[in-house]
Amino acid sequence: MKGSLHTDELLGAMLPRAAGLRTERRISHVFLLDVPTYPRPLMVTDAAINVAPDVREKADIVRNAIELAHVLGIEQPRVAVLAAVETVNPEMQATIDAAMLCKMVDRGQIVGGLVDGPLAFDNAVSEAAARTKGIESEVAGRADILVAPDLEAGNMVAKQLQYLAGADSAGIVLGMRVPVVLTSRADNVRTRLASTALLALVAAHRRSAGKGG
Predict the structure, then answer these.
(1) Position 202 in a domain
(2) In this structure, is residue 171 part of a structural domain?
(3) pLDDT one-digit tens code per residue, 193-211
C-alpha cells in the first residue's frame, strides 16, 4: 500500500523480477469512482502507471479492468475506449488503437466484456449525447469502464470527477501477483479506506479462485 511517497518509489520496489510480484500481464492502475451524477460505479484506467501505452499494453489494461469489474459483480462490463472523436481517424492514434482493441474482442483475444471505441467522453457516459450523434452501441452512454488514451488524459478525467463532480474514489494496481493500493498523496482517509476495502475484495476473490492474492 502506497503511503506518503512518490509512485515511482513504490513501483521501483515492486517491478523487478527478483521481487517475485510480476506476471506476464502488463500492470495497470484503476480508479474506481462513485460519481453522484452517474447511475453506476465508474472505472477509469490507466491514470497512474502506463504513460503512453501502445495497443498491446492497452489490451492488458482492458483485461485488468474487466477482471476487476467481475470481482465487483459486473458480469458483462461495458468498456468505452476513449478518444477525442467517435470515428476512426488515421491521424489520431487513439482512434486506431480503439478500433484494434474492438477487433481483438471480435477475435476472442479480449474476453469478458463489451468493448466499443473510439468514443468521446460525452458519448461514453451520456445516452443523450450518443443518440444526438447517431451512435448505435451497447456501450455508449452506459460505460462501466473508461479506457484513457494515455496517462495524462486518464489522470485528468479521474481527478476532475473527484474534485469537480464530488466523486468518491478508490485506487488499485492490477496485473501483479497481489493487488496493491495506490492512491494520491493528497487523498483523504475516506479514499484510502475505500482503496483498502477494494484490495480486500480482490484478494479474497483471488484466493477463492486459487490464484493466491
Answers:
(1) no
(2) no
(3) 999 999 999 999 988 887 6
